[in-house]
Amino acid sequence: ACGVEMEQYPDELRDKPRPVVGFVGGSAKLHNTVASHLSFAQEPPPTSPAVPPLATVLGASTTASGGDHSHNNNQTSGTSSTAPLTTASSLNMPVAILNDAGPTGLTGNSSRTRSLFVISLQRGETLATSKSFKGPPSERSGKSGGSSGPPIPPTSPSMLSAQHHPTGGREATMSLRDSGGLIEDAPGVLKANWMHKHTRLVPSVLVLFCPEWGKSVGAGVIRTTTGGVQQVSGGSIGAAGSTAATAAATKWAEREAEFIASLEATRASIKNRHTKLIVVLVQKNPAADGTDERFNAFKKKAELDSKKILFYTKTDSKNAVKKLEKTVMDLAASYYREIAQAKKKKREKMHKNTQPSLYVRYCFKVGFLSEFRDDIKSALKYYIEGYKYLPRVTRDRLRMTELKIIADFMNFKVCKLYMSEGGTEEAVQQFAFHIKTFKHIIGMQEKEYEHWAWLSRQYQVFGELLKTDNRNDWEFDDNALCFPGYYFQIAANYAIKRKQLAQRLCEPIRDSPVLSKYNDVEPFSLVSADRSKQEYIGQHYVFFEDHPLEDADKPQVPDEMDQLYKSWATELKVPHSAVILLLLRVAYEWYKKVNKQRTALHIASLIAFEYVQTRQFKEAKGYFDSISERYKREGWWTLLVPLLTSAMIPALALHSAKDFILYSLDLIAPHMPTKIEDKKKVQYNLIAALFNPKSLSLNPLDVSIIRPLEDPFIYCRAQFKQEQVLSKETLQLSLLVYSRFPDHTRFSRIIVLFSDPRYNCSLADPSLDEEKRQIEGETSRVKLADLMIPADGHKIFDIDLIAHKPTQLQVTSVWVELGSSPSLLRFVCTIATGSPQVRLWESEQQKLKAGVLRKDMRQAELDRSFPMRPSIAIKEQRVGIKARLSHVPPALVDEFYRIDVALYNTEPLPASLDLLFHLEPSSSGIAGEPATDTCFFIGRGAVRDSLTQLHIAELAPGKIFHQTIYVKFASPGDRNIVIEVGYETASQSRIVFHKLKRVTIQRAFSVQYNIYSRDMQLVLSIPSLSADKPAEATVLPSAQLLYVQAELLCLTSYPLMLIDTSLKTRKTGAPEGQSLAEYSSVAVAPTKLETNCKYSAWFQVRPLIEGDSLVLADLTIQYSRCATNYIYSSVSLFQAREAHKLKKQQLKTAVVPVSDAPAKKPPPRMMWDEDKPKTKQEPITTSSSNSGAEEYLLETDSEPVEICLPLPPLTLQPDAFTTTATLPASGCVGEVLRYTLTIRNNTPLPQPLVVSVQENNLFLYGGDQTATPLLRPRAVYSNQFNFLPV
After folding, report:
1. Residue 840 above 70 pLDDT?
2. Which residues sit opposite 730 in a β-bridge?
3. According to the model, what pLDDT value does residue 1098 have?
4. What are residue 1143's phi and psi, to 5 degrees?
5. 515, 509 in Cβ contact below 8 A?
6. Residue 476 has what pLDDT?
7. In angstroms, what CA-CA distances link 83 with 27, 86, 101, 655?
8. What are the angstrom distances between the C-alpha of 446 and each of 326, 437, 573?
9. pLDDT at position 769, please?
10. 89 and 158 in contact (C-beta within 8 Å)?
11. Which residues, other chains included, contact 116 with Cβ-Cβ below 8 Å and sequence gap of 6+?
12. What is the radius of gyration, based on Cα positions, of the chain?
């Protein structure tokens, strides 16, 4: 239950004192049996919240074992209550401390302790009468009393501490003598071994066991008369009986004398002490007749009171032990009361002012002895009284450490006693008084770190004490001083100060040769020091070159410089950061448990700072990131500055450019309370991290950093100078960019995004590389501009754009970029329709917390001088040229698809026109097909030319221009055909508009292949094979005649004329000079195929080679559209003859003259946007406004189209076997016919064969009916069969 620091206290100080009882006489087994039946002390287990305990590193940092200067806690505190059965030297008598065993007498690790501390004294030893220790038995005599075997060593060096003292066995306390009228004080407060002596070695009660008390000594029972004559009763009468009685009487007399001798020896050993004595008579069964006379005789000779003689019956041991324990507890209380009274009398003789050390000593002893009797009130009284006079002890710098350690011990005792009685508030007050009293007693400045280490330990120990409190719920209420996390936090703060002082005082001399001889000295604490090498608690060790008695009269003053060098050497080995981190983590967990997030964040920041000190940068970065996010949400800018400054260290150490840039941006934000000079330095490093990261040992960014929409650095406003414009006119946009960077900044690029992506444009600084100036997918709207913006200033940029189709155009956002891809920092500013009323980087809640209730004056001035107008209306410009596209869908793959273009001039003047043709790619095409493998053509057959643009020199008013163009598509899907028409007249500037027509492209046929063997057995069937759905290869035997059926299905909505089907040789896949296969087909007459009509074509194919996935040939299909008449809805404008003439005219050049003949009638108004063609199957409808319209009949002109589809891939392999039979051409009845069978294995594997002969009534056969040869790879099997015709 105790923490690590509490474990450093001696066991006798940390544990509740228990009365010490000594067992003398009897066997060790008897002692263990009696001790195992003692009751347990009622000490409820302490409860504490689930807080992770301090790691062992913390204990190792403050207490270590090594050399002659430090020992662990078990060594210094003697044998613990849970240690195995051992022996020790107490009162010049070998003892064995009986462990707190369980009810069964077995040793264990139970946390429960017995009510008595039992030591087992070796039988036959004589207790010395001297108060001092004379050393272990092995030094006093060659033998260990009446015990056999080698002497048992002591349990701890503390048992022999007196013989190492300079007093050489004299009382260490300085005698009260008058020296010139002055009474001298003691050189120390508390003897190093006093607590251990009274809790482990000096018994308050001695229990002398008289074994075999009730054992029979003869044939009868000896009775003792008044005159001392012994009589025997119950025996035989006669000479033999008399002899037996005499022997029994003699034996009992010897045993009784032995008991009396042991009793006298025990009394002699405690003659000058207050130790109480009890005699226990051990018997196996209850008392028999005649034992009373023996008991009375023994009591009379031993001169014992009846209350101090007890019986121990082995058959009823529990009740006997219970009675013994009650008697021992009463006598022990009387013993400790008498000892305390003696100490009180000595204390009363002390002068408080001139002898403060002695006065404090006796106060401590009285309080400590009161704890044995559970007199908590008296113990607290004398502890507190001694503590009050402790500051009056001479503050000699050599005794400064002793003074603090004694204060630590007494404060620990007082606080623990208060808490045991439920007085947590009183314990807190005592601790506060303790810190107030000794906080400013620093000591030597050269070792000032020891003072802060002591303070840190005080807070840590008190926090651990609070953890052992029985409070069930730890709530951080108004009384925060009762919260353990607070004390761990303060302990960490003092540990940090200790580290800083150690670095200042000790680090400069780390490599000094003076400290080289102290390299083996390990860190240790005087709190847990080896008390066998101390005279007084808290004082440094005193070493002797020779026997200590030779220098007993010389004052032993430790070498002050030697102690200083040792202190420096050991302090340099202390893992300060590990101690600090563990204390901070414990405090952090406590505050998180009670949901005090702000304090927990502060502690987490200290953890992060300490991680930076220990170069654990990844852990530090995790803490910095989580804390900074919370600080930003809370608006704690002052706390955020040192946090981010420290966070840049792990960012540089981890070579993380992204983290370094983000931390820098947060540091130079306008609302950060950082000096402007510091902000400029940070901005300089930020620019270096973006453009030259290697100069800061940073790895370049792999992705761009995009700042959020609401950013504190960039503020943008957009203003169109016009409210509306017509299409193709110039748009004028003014863009204001306000930079809040602390220094002038040259940005790389400014990108303006519109609601219509076609207007997106950018401004690039001339310093940016040319290939990095473009927007993704744009090359024409990049303008060079000087993007240097002054610190906390703005700049206005003018942008000119050309308006396209009518729409409501709006500026959506502005990107301001710093750096170049991929090391790019992008600030995104949203352009709203109105002027913002608050700062973009602060919410209203943050503004209230920061006390900012007024609007940013600088931004308000910009709002007034540069009003926002981020949208503009683009109106449609009047177009005087009407255009119409006519075609018959759907288009077919690989055909020259016909489109009729008609242009009508409604302008009052002649117009000059330019036509541009292109396609917009569509995502509905087949995967894997190219999206731009199309081309425009003009003309037919041999005079067909490619077409990208067409120029019409002059189109008279009211005239119509007709042109037929062809488009070839290589893949199916949906495509948009776009014709861009630009014209101008003598009074009208150039106007451009677009005409778009969506065309669906599909395949003409789907083909299903059926492959048959030469005996017309279906081998393979592949449905709906096309270039879009390749088939998997099928294994077939090579050199075998195949019949291929290609079943064509017409997929178009109109009839097709199938002209020819044939197979063409493939040149790929065949060896040089060799064909893949031989094939033949039958010519057919042209056949008309209606929609969903099927046609089968047959081919004969003989493969000539072997291989995998071979396509033997391509199926060539030649077809054309059937002649069909199409009727177009027209008006009188389209005069039949003129239109027919223009329709049949073949243009061979790009410049097309138009007839100047005027129209006979003025052109009526008509709907030119209705481009849907009318077929015979569709009724022709005209509106009432076009009642005078005429129907114009046109004939389609179709050219043959040839497509190639591959045959399904085949894997051709030879037959596994080749069989040849040889037999005569004729034979005669009765003559043998010889039939020879030859089989060849064509595979690379051995093949088992089964050759059997079936019976036939026409022949007689002799031989094996069945043969099973194993045919090796590429081998030949041959066998001859003889048949006799009958």
Report:
1. no
2. 802
3. 86
4. -65, -40
5. yes
6. 52
7. 20, 8, 10, 54
8. 56, 22, 17
9. 66
10. no
11. 18, 19, 20, 21, 38, 325, 328, 329, 332
12. 57
Q: Which amino acid is at 707?
A: R
CB 1168 within 8 A of CB 1096: no
Which secondary-structure segment (H or E) carries 1126? Answer: strand 1125-1129
Query: What DSSP letter does each residue of 408-427 carry, written as one string?
Result: HHHHHHHHHHHHHTT-HHHH
The answer to whether 309 and 339 have CB atoms below 8 angstroms apart is: no
Tokens 């204060």 locate to: 407
Q: Where are the alpha helices (DSSP H) in 421-476?
A: 424-438, 448-467
Judge whether 283 and 213 are in contact, CB under 8 Å.
Answer: yes
Phi, psi of 938 (to 5 degrees): -135, 140
DSSP per-residue codes, 639-698: HHHHHHHHHHHHHHHTTBHHHHHHHHHHHT-TTS---HHHHHHHHHHHHHHHH-GGGGT-
Give the C-alpha distances (Å, rounded to integers) separating 868 from 715, 833, 843, 862, 865: 12, 7, 22, 10, 10
Using the predicted structure, report yes or no on whether residue 1168 has a pLDDT greater than 70: no
Q: Cβ contacts of residue 373 below 8 Å, gap of 6+?
A: 333, 336, 337
Residue type, 316: D
Cβ-based burial of 438 (10 A; exposed 0-12, middle 13-18, buried ≥19) = buried
DSSP string, 64-129: --BTTTB--HHHHS-S-TTSPSEEEEETTEEEEEPP---TTS-----S--BSSEEEEEPTT-----
Q: Where are the beta strands (DSSP E) in 1013-1093?
A: 1018-1025, 1034-1037, 1042-1050, 1056-1065, 1077-1081, 1087-1089
CA distance 647 to 268: 75
Residue type, 74: N
Q: How far apart are CA 1077 and CA 965, in angstroms?
A: 41
Lookup result for tokens 């569709």: 1178
Q: Give the Cα separation of 711 and 705 in Å (integer).
A: 13
Q: At what angle do helices 400-420 and 356-372 cross, to 10 degrees?
A: 30
Residue 563 has what pLDDT?
Answer: 83
Q: What is the rounded distance in angstroms from the CA atom of residue 973 to the CA atom of residue 560?
A: 98
How many percent of the chain have pLDDT more than 90? 17
Q: What strand order describes the sheet that includes 881-886?
A: 881-886, 896-905, 960-968, 935-938, 945-946
Q: Tell me which long-range contacts 1075-1081 makes (C-beta under 8 A, separation of at least 24).
A: 1075/1104, 1076/1103, 1076/1104, 1076/1105, 1076/1110, 1076/1112, 1076/1113, 1077/1101, 1077/1102, 1077/1103, 1077/1104, 1077/1105, 1077/1112, 1077/1113, 1078/1102, 1078/1104, 1079/1044, 1079/1112, 1079/1113
Per-residue pLDDT at 434 exceeds 90: yes
Average pLDDT, the chain: 74
pLDDT at residue 454, rounded to an integer: 92
Question: Which among 1077, 1119, 1076 is positioned nearest to 1097, based on CA atoms?
Answer: 1119
Rounding to the nearest 10 degrees, give the CA dihedral for residues 148, 154, 155, 158: 170
Buried b (16+ CB within 10 A) or exposed e, 850-863: eeeeeebeebeebb
Largest CA distance in the chain: 183
pLDDT at 282: 86
Q: Record the pTM.
A: 0.61
Integer Cα distance of 1070 and 1076 in angstroms? 6
Within 10 angstroms of residue 1055's Cβ, the number of other Cβ atoms is 15
Q: How far is residue 451's CA from residue 22's CA, in Å, rounded to a whole number? A: 42
Mean pLDDT of 257-272: 83
Q: Is the peptide bond before 1208 cis (omega within 30 degrees of 0)?
A: no
411 pLDDT higher than 90: yes
Q: Omega before 1030 cis (within 30°)?
A: no
> Which residue pairs, CB below 8 angstroms and at least 24 apart, start in 635-641?
635/846, 635/849, 635/850, 637/671, 637/672, 637/673, 637/850, 638/673, 639/605, 640/666, 640/672, 641/667, 641/672, 641/673, 641/674
Q: State residue 1071's pLDDT score.
A: 64
